[in-house]
Amino acid sequence: MLAVCDHSAYGPWLSSIMRSAQIKFPVIVDEYAAGTAGSKLSNLTMLSLGASPGCVEVVNPLGRLEAMFPSNEVSRLDSCVSRLLLSQPAPSNSPPFLTVSELVSKPAPLITIGRWVRKEPGANEAGDQRFTVLHFGSAYVAASVQSDYPDEECLLDQLQSLYGDRKCRLLWILPSADQTERAESFAAAMAKRIAIGIDENGVTYSAYGVDVYSSNVILDQAGNVAAIGVLDSQLFRVLKDLMKTPVH
Q1: Same CATH fold assignment for domains 3-87 and 113-243
Q2: Residue 91, Cβ neighbours under 10 Å: how many?
């Protein structure tokens, strides 16, 4: 069981509700996404799953969406979950909440940058023994999120400060639509320590299968895709875990 709250949920308020309601299962706050007013929510997880407030989705042990119900249809939900528990044993080694992709463990697709905002050599050149984090996201979305935390260093710069140039390379790849002076200024002002490039006609986004407003891909020291579809909130933990795993 995992509850997903709207991105605007206030932490202390949410914690007090959990305590008063004696909620024991995990509760997370969704990540902001630039949705279309009136048709899509501004919540990345809900947006990607096609969910809405008051909705319950059932995901089977293979990570596939099994069913969707209004939260008040308890009997249908119970029937669906019971059927899954009886028919499908859960895999023992499946990492939670990461996108399943044919790219994982394979050589990373070519990164095609049409224009550099702040230049840095391409990811994982021959002989490079660093991990690479590719951050896919719009400068406009990032600026909107960052405006809520004006005194806090952006996530990508925090990672750069933590791991430095010796362990990890970071590259922010802006979508082709961000090839404007305003978007480039936003990106350069927020991430001051890392390379920033603009994708060329959507080639890199397409190659990595990225179709959301903010996502991360991690390449290992051998230049293979180690993790894909990593949310910003997962990035520290996933990168730390991967650095502990020897490359074969």
Answers
A1: yes
A2: 9
Domain limits of the chain?
3-87, 113-243
Residue 3 confidence (pLDDT): 82
**Domain 113-243 adopts which CATH fold?**
Glutaredoxin (3.40.30)
User: Residue written as tokens 């480039």?
Assistant: 184
In the β-sheet with 113-118, what is the strand arrangement from edge to edge?
Answer: 113-118, 195-199, 168-174, 131-137, 214-219, 225-230
Write down the H helix ranges in the chain.
Answer: 11-20, 44-49, 74-87, 139-146, 155-167, 181-190, 203-207, 235-243
What is the model's pLDDT at position 124? 45
* pLDDT averaged per 10 residues, the chain (length 248): 75 72 77 53 69 76 70 71 65 44 83 89 56 89 68 81 81 89 89 91 89 80 87 81 68
Q: Identify the CATH class of 3-87.
A: alpha beta
With beta carbons less than 8 A apart as the criterion, state whether 58 and 71 touch: no
